[in-house]
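Annex B. Sample input.
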Amino acid sequence: MKPFIFSALVVISFPLMAQWTPNTALNTLAANVNTDDMMTAATNDGRTYIAFWAPVSGPTYYEMRLQLLDTSGTPQFGPNGMIVDNSIGMSTSTVTWDLKVDNTNNAYIGITGTGGNGDARVHKVSPSGTKQWGTNGITIGQGYSVRLLPLNSGELIVAYLPGSHAVIKKYSATGTSMWTTPITVTPVVSTHQSWPGEFIEMSNNKFMFVFHNKAGFSPSALPYAHCYSTAGTAVWTAPVPLSSGTYTYAFNRYDFIQRGDTAYFGYGGAQGSNLQSFIQRINPNGTLPWGANGVDFGTQNTLYERSMRLARGDDSKYLWAIAEMTTTSQGNMGESVQKLHAHTGARLLGTNGQVVYTIGTSDISHRGHLQVWDDHPVFLVSDGNSNGVFPKDLLLVELDTLGNFLNTPAEIDFATNSTGTKSRIDLLPIHNGMVIGAWVEDRTGNGRPYAQRVDINPCLAPTLAFQWLTSNTTLTLSNSSLNADSIYWDFGDGSGVADTSSSVQHIFSAPGTYTICGVAYNACSTDSLCATITVCDALSAAFSTASFLDSAYFSLNSAVDSVYWDFGDGQTLSTTDSTASHVYASNGTYTVSCVAYNACTADSAQSQVVISGIGVPETDANAIQLLQVGDRIELTSPNAPLLNVQMWTADGRMLWSSKPSSSKVSWSSQGIPAGIYVIRAETSLGQLFVERLQVQ
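Annex B, continued. Sample output.
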């Protein structure tokens, strides 16, 4: 049994496009029902919730539906998703709403009915599709702009706009109201309104809330932040203004992210007619170390910075932002990227960021959220192919840590149906390098929710590595290859098998020397490796013995390549023959040892032989005569008839025998191989004759 180790290593890094649907003109259909507005949220294990308003005939008008895609893109709630709410009372329009996921992957959906008294409801749905708060969820009041914050405790903070002032409430995991008195968010100016914005959860049972102090028609709001305890009391003495003069759109959603208890708010708005974007840092105590407006995406004021998105990688000390860039005429678009130090706010890609796509007639700009993976910004862009309003193509872009394109070509096809127009586009947080996007696409006059996944993990070329051992004609491979999607093993005897398991076995039909080869494959490349092996029949050193007078004869029971004999009297012999003989000098019992070898292994055995014929008187030469005349062997006993005559080989096998009861016997030597033989005879007088005969 001989073990061997072989390995080879080649590392190549480029994207592995493991898509749910390789045909990007097809993509993954999340639900086969009409869809208007849609939102998406990711679970912490790589699954995807898609909530959407499905238009139906009156008087219902709209149904809220929910779909869950597993990590392979398979819908879990049926081909059309599950109905979450079809009784809230809708008109022919929808308003802003919210979707969030908690740390146990329950989905929360906050909606407002537009056809009745404006009920605001929240539904809680488990990953198995159970509506945990009943058929109709819980009604939090009458109002709009529902915003949700699932807490790590399993409880829920919810904000909505029942009139002119935002209201915040807290609910238990079972949907029970927990505060006797809700929080009413008072606008900074008494004649203004406070519109719900965004939440983050902080440590020590606190949360931070951004609201918009709205004066009139948008953009006329200034963003403010306030900190509250989860018991419903204010932690800061007053709300903190996040901008001193850039007015936001109160109904827009803005990115509000955190690093520990430090929050970052990315916003864009108008300074008069100038559209600019900023990133504001908010310390846990409410101070603003980056100034009254935060850090400007770019210091220039000749171009507009629109639709800025903000993101941070896990445990990263950097923030990334992207913005759609236009001239003041807003006729054409481009895209720029900026990187900031999360502590100092220093712009690391220059005072105006780095241009990703120049402003031009191609109108390339981002769609949906910005995400970060391994300090690489990742986002979707429209390449300008549209119906004049909605894009037809979505491409995935990944930049390196310096803001340059990571891949060649720079864009990866993501959704490219030539007739489908796409809206409600979003890109979800990246899980284990898997990028998932979702959108509503109209291919036939009605929208449907679609999704796609792309693996942006660096693709490592496969490394083929294996150990092997043989036992007789059985080969066992121990496979330790890396990054292989498939492996084909060629055993060199005309047979092979595709197998990626850790142990692969093959039995050869005949002993011999074979070249075995493995080829490992993945989407990046291949790796191959060969080894020459020898397999053998089973080997045994067991042997048989025979003795005559002073001689012993030994014969192995199986074929060998070589054999070493120790005759037990201090004499040894190395030979390639499977038989051996030895002449002993004295009577006795001898332990004979044998070590047999073949190309694969060795085996040993022992046996005893008894020598007792030394010193026996030789037969009178005149009593019995042995002659060889030509091809005849003759034995004559002049004094008494021969009763028993035998011819033995040197290794102890009886070759011929006769009981003639006469004084003379003869037989032919034709066909008997040349060599030394032993003739043994007995007479009627008890005379014993033993003599060697050389056959020519």
